[in-house]
Amino acid sequence: MEITYHWEGDYLIPDLKLSDTIEYQIGKYGRMRKRFLEENHRGIYSYMLLSETLWKHLAEIDEECNEMMDRLVRQMAKNEGVTEQLKSDDWLLWIQKKQTASGAGRRK
């Protein structure tokens, strides 16, 4: 592999290109994973950053966590008795139970 350079003022700067140019959307759980790796596993974080696998990994973690949270909230809502029938009968109680299930799922 031959590296090419270009001049910037008095300095030679290498012409580096990233192979992975996809822009990943990183949410709450991806950012939490990134912070965890930065603070607790510096070597793994640096390796993944340099090997261009970090952002894909963070996007996968974020997607998996969001799917898990959705599944958990649905299960908790089902256990609380949150149904469409309850929504049509007593919508205030339905909102209260839905929020309770959602909040409890986020705290777990």
Structure report:
With 108 residues, this protein is mainly alpha-helical. The chain has one domain. The protein is 67% helix and 7% strand. The chain is built from five helices and two strands. Strands 1-2 form a two-stranded antiparallel sheet. A hairpin with a 2-residue loop joins strand 1 and strand 2. It starts with a strand and ends with a helix.
Q: What does the overall shape look like?
A: elongated
Largest sheet: 2 strands, antiparallel
Mean pLDDT across residues: 86
Radius of gyration: 23 Å
Order of strands in the sheet with most strands: 1-2
Low-confidence stretches: none
Structural class: mainly alpha
Based on the model shown, name its key terms.
single chain; 108 residues; mainly alpha; two-stranded antiparallel ribbon; 5 helices; 7% strand
Would you kindly provide a brief summary of this structure?
With about 110 residues, the protein is mainly alpha-helical. It has helices spanning about 30-40, 40-50, 55-80, 85-90, 90-105, and strands spanning about 5-10, 10-15.
